[in-house]
Amino acid sequence: MAKVVTMGEIMLRLSPAGNMRFVQADSFDVIYGGGEANVAVSCANYGHDAYFVTKLPEHEIGQSAVNALRRYGVNTKFIARGGDRVGIYYAETGASMRPSKVIYDRANSAIAEAKPEDFDFDAIMEGADWFHWSGITPAISNKAAELTRLACEAAKRHGVTVSVDLNFRKKLWTSKKAISVMKPLMEYVDVCIGNEEDAELCLGFKPDANVEAGETGAEGYHKIFEQMAKEFKFKYVISTLRESFSATHNGWKALIYNGKEFYESKRYDINPIIDRIGGGDSFSGGVIHGLLTKETQGEALEFAVAASALKHTINGDFNLVSASEVESLAGGNANGRVQR
Question: Which of 42, 200, 254, 309 has the fewest other C-beta atoms within 10 Å?
Answer without folding.
Answer: 200
